[in-house]
Design goal:
Layout: E1 3-7, H1 22-33, E2 51-53, E3 58-65, E4 68-75, H2 82-89, H3 93-96, E5 99-109, E6 113-117, H4 125-134, E7 140-147, H5 161-168, H6 174-180
Parallel strand pairs: 1-4, 1-5, 5-7
Antiparallel strand pairs: 2-3, 3-4, 6-7
Helix pairs in contact: 2-4
Length: 181
Amino acid sequence: MPYIIAGLGNPGEEYENTRHNTGRIVLEVIAKEFGVEGDLIVSDSTTGDFKFDKKLKAHVALTKIGKEKVTLVAPDTFMNLSGKTIGQLVKSIKAAEKLVVIYDDFALPLGRMKISFNRSSGGHNGVESIIKAVKTEAFVRIRVGTAPEKSNGDAKVPHGDEKVLKFILSKFKDDEVKVLK
């Protein structure tokens, strides 16, 4: 049973380089590091090693990291429905233990990440969708920071639904993309 690394985000050019697409951006970096080619941003792209799977509604690539077989997955279901794709790939609690989900966290400063296992969604709708689909919280999450950093090292977090939505759908500046990658 291969490992599955899922990079969460939204498909389409309008979401390219947005903070909410951090999981997909990081997945592309991982893919290139291990010899996988292709573009995850445009939902109908089938260039390189990433192929669009109509049944999964995702871009999928197979690779090896070390001696381990790995399936790289970028759901094209939009963030809040990511579980529809992942649930088709992870059909048991045992299989969920080999699932790694990468996603944005606006409560962490850019350039930082937190890795956890068997935790709640923390209010992230994409992760909540996956938990419901795979019927367990027992999988690895990599939360990648997207927020500017305050002078004290904490994240400068937006407050209020409108400000949060505007922030997570805002595009990274060029220098921020370099830090992210």
